[in-house]
Design goal:
By secondary structure, this protein is an alpha+beta fold. The protein is built from ten helices and eight strands. Strands 1, 2, 3, 4, 5, 6, 7 and 8 form an eight-stranded mixed beta sheet that branches. Helix 5 runs antiparallel to helix 7 (about 145-165).
Amino acid sequence: MAERGSEDWWRDYLTRGHRLEGFARVVFPRLPGGARCKVCSVPFGGFGRILRLFGWQPSAKNPQVCGFCSQRLPAGGCEVEVAVFVADVRGYTALSETIAATELAATMSRYFTVLTDVLLAHGALIDKYMGDGLQALFLAGVAGAEYERQALDAARASLVALDKERCTLPVGIAIHSGIAFVGNVGGVGMVDLTAMGDVVNVANRLQAFAQAGEILVGEHLYQRHAAHLGTARKAELSLKGKETVFAARVISVLT
């Protein structure tokens, strides 16, 4: 067994999910308690309420995963395949100048609530909230082997849900997939599970081109899931910091 916190340990955790040992591995799946951690199966209700005292409470990153399987992790990480989801409100600065601050706060709260609910339902880990944007990670260890498809489905479902809830904010989404360093990053006593690398940078730069009601994905990601995504318009984009043109696809959801 890999040493806890080693690169091999992280790779196993991120791609297969946390694996409890001995008694806990046998008992947790059999304990009653309703909703439970998607990774280690510890229940959050019933007898699981007692286990919360020992750290197995829902995680702030994703309440469908317990704290031990999310943020209470050792320092370190490894390079692993990940799908990065980035949503952003188009024209937020102009919008903030036209409505009262209280109304803006209520609107943004509804927007983040809708997005978060959809993302968690698709197995995402909420990485960070960024003003008027949100970044989430889809990993095989939590979202499952079809993590890319889960990210794509979450993007479509997010725009549909926002429209259904009459959230009129103009939201664009981008998804990029590839190898990134994923792990606990930060200073002493202040670490956070996040992703770093070119795939994250590309996802954030790609979202700048996503208009309201659109999902932008790279050509390679699109080709892997073309049968599921259907027809999508081609686009050649000049991303900041990239010397070559980036081939992408534009998926229009609400038109």
